[in-house]
Amino acid sequence: MSALLLSGREASAAILAALKPKIGKLDPKLVVVQVGDDPGSSSYIKQKIKSAAEVGMRSEHCHLASSMSLEELLSKVAELNADPDVTGFIVQLPLPDHLQPHVPEIIRAIDPKKDVDGFGAYNLGKVFLSKEFEHLPPATPAGIIMLLEYYKIPVAGKHVVIVGRSNIVGKPLAVMMLNRDATVTVCHSKTKNLSAITKQADILVAAIGKPKFITGDMVKPGAIVIDVGTSRVDGKLTGDVDFEVVQEIASAITPVPGGVGPMTVCSLIKNCVQAKERQMKDMQTNI
Ligand code: NAP
């Protein structure tokens, strides 16, 4: 029997439609900073700007030359931090080779109140406290949680196995699942007997970046499978899960494209709304 398709397109459209009146009232503005011309980044940014427009949110694509120095980029970040019209902004990763080693410094320079990607230490730290403190959570883990909620898939008491421990997906997702009473196992490239662990998962999340890495023999029958991976194979976007085989084993599965990707964009827009709400509250308390 084929698995239920967990459509990020459907879930994000419903979540964003519900957010629309708030966006109309608050009028937040999102800025996406791109340095250089990475083709993957260009296509993700196009999607972010398009989704913002569809929901009536102001957005701007700030496209900078790949030759830009670290000092010039940090000065752009400072300018966006200081601009009262900018609610939130992101610096699209990856950066050109000469800037990539400075990513931690660049993220640290972003005002936590405007860090709508949720990558900075302040917002990540709040995620560690409890669900109630997830004010600007990292966009992809938050998108996965929203997708499960949309399809009414409970996580409390479930064994969630996450393959991948990056700071933007695997690690924060593990904490957010713990915040929701899941039992969590995080695997990575040094994990021994990986398939013996993935086979125990009630909910299996693949965030590896290796196309079709999760094969049918790594999945428990009836498991929920969330595929975060996005690799280009012969020009086609391909996930970390061998979809054709695993969809016959799992009870529910996300497609690539159309699964986690649209949910990440949805979270980014939601974070921008939350940032604006908080900024307005701060203004009122400072009067
Ligand atoms: P990353 O920083 O490269 O992390 C990859 C993780 O996979 C690492 O923790 C690595 O382990 C682990 N890994 C690599 N080979 C492995 C193996 N053989 N067995 C077990 N674990 C292994 O990647 P990321 O930024 O988290 O992204 C992962 C994928 O998700 C990429 O394809 C990316 O494009 C995609 N992505 C999609 C979205 C979306 O919105 N759809 C958002 C973010 C990322 P070590 O830590 O030991 O190296």
What does this protein structure show overall?
- The strands form 3 sheets. A 6-stranded parallel β-sheet has the order 1-11-8-7-5-6. It has a 3-stranded parallel β-sheet with strand order 3-2-4, covered by helices on one side. A two-stranded antiparallel sheet has the order 9-10.
- It has 2 domains: 26-111, Leucine Dehydrogenase, chain A, domain 1 (Rossmann fold), CATH 3.40.50.10860; 129-260, 3-Layer(aba) Sandwich (Rossmann fold).
- It is of the alpha/beta class and 287 residues long.
- Helix 2 packs across helix 10 (260-286), helix 5 runs parallel beside helix 7 and helix 6 (139-150) packs across helix 10 (260-286).
- The mean pLDDT is 96.
- It has helices at 8-26, 39-54, 70-82, 103-109, 121-129, 139-150, 170-179, 194-198, 243-246, 260-286, and strands at 4-5, 29-35, 58-64, 88-91, 159-163, 183-187, 203-206, 224-227, 231-233, 236-238, 252-253.
- NADP nicotinamide-adenine-dinucleotide phosphate binds at residues 140, 163-166, 168-170, 187-191, 194, 207-210, 228-231, 260-261, 264.
